[in-house]
Design goal:
With about 475 residues, this protein is an alpha/beta fold. About 30% of the residues lie in helices and about 15% in strands. It has a five-stranded parallel β-sheet with strand order 16-15-14-17-18. A four-stranded parallel β-sheet has the order 4-3-5-6. Strands 10-9-8-11 form a four-stranded parallel β-sheet. The N and C termini lie far apart (about 60 Å).
Length: about 475
Amino acid sequence: MMRHSLPHCGSGVSGEMAPQSTTQEPRTLADKIWDRHVVESLTDGPDLLAIDLQYVHEASSLQAFDQLADRGLTVAHPERTLAVMDHVVPVRTDRDGWTANAAEFTRALAANCSRYGIPCIPYLDRRQGIAHVVGPELGLTLPGMTIVCGDSHTSTHGALGAVAFGIGTTQVAHVLATQSLLVTRPRTMEVVIDGQLQLGATAKDLALALIAAHGNLGGVGHAIEFRGETVESLSIEGRMTLCNMGIEFGSRMNIVAPDATTLAYLESTPLAPVGEQAAREAWADLRSDEGAHFDSSLRLDANEIAPRVSWGTSPAQSTVLGGAVPDPASAGDSDAVASAERALEYMGLTAGTPLRDVAIDAAFIGSCTNSRIEDLRAATQILRGRKVAAGVMAVAVPGSMRVKLQAEAEGLDEIFREAGFSWNTAGCSLCIAANGQVIPAGSRCASTTNRNFEGRQGTGARTHLMSPASVAASAVAGRLVGPQEL
């Protein structure tokens, strides 16, 4: 059994890795990283997996720290955890947005981090923001790492070539106490995407198209590797959007092999060890071998993918912008038909209605899916010289304070304000209806978030998932349109 000496947060190279397999059998990228982190395997059971880095936030960590205290345990490697304030902190700048729960959670996280020596980024610090934005932009998320967080969209970090997945509260406590996790190895799936996206289409549309084509359970039990010329052409931010939304496809984790684009991105971060020879050598083999076996395989033609919008209450329920609300009868089996009928009733839509005739009441640009500088730039390209339609509440929330400051240095905040958007500080915000920030019942919101479940943005709120450019265009038009229509 090989025990690991894991790195300090952000050092970039696992200290002592399991020896490389002597077999010549080709392996997938996910399996390579997994194998290097196995501490011990149980016969016909799960693996004890060494965890390089854990992100914790104020909304999911309180019970985990209580479990440590109740059992008299300490944190094994506090330097391999990073705490952030993101889920429930206020983002509004016009007035105090603190709720009692938010204040309690943030105070408790700060106190626990102080007690156990865990690095914690305070609220409104220049590095504060959403974990899945902050980690990559600081250079803490690195190729070849195993990364966990008490948040399902931890798969976002797979865009940089890491095995990253969400875990539950008890598992958060286990990682804090042992820097390891008992977990079953997932099956592998390749999703190969070739071709060029249609005008106005983005990684968000790519993800929505995949989920619509194969359902929200298509990836269940799998570690998905996104491959192909379309994926290779995406920026790291686009890859993060794709890996983030892959969770809505049902997968446990999602990954993209690191390449020159990855290295260029890491070179722009303050902490990634891109200049260290050991780091580059450790990353060099991080790709699936030629002929590696995947348990499942899917292919998509990017040439067929246009800007999309969700019409129902699942990310799987989306269609092309410019089309019409689909007829539930076309959904497939009886369960799918019933689900579509319930979704249309909740969303207040009628089959056959042209989507461009569906008026919106709100527009939200933010969340761990689409709140990076590339997303804000795409939105302001549409908004420049235009105004939000009368009666539309428009909100922009950068994913981190670093993104906010960069956007302000580029003048993007002024474009948002002049168009009629409110400009806010960093946090999850309207993605989860935190701190009293909600879409009113019955109101319709064009949103860059990852989920459109019933009540996700507020009780009775109706959410339409779109890309940042499409949300911006819809805010200007006051109805559901794509950027190409402007």
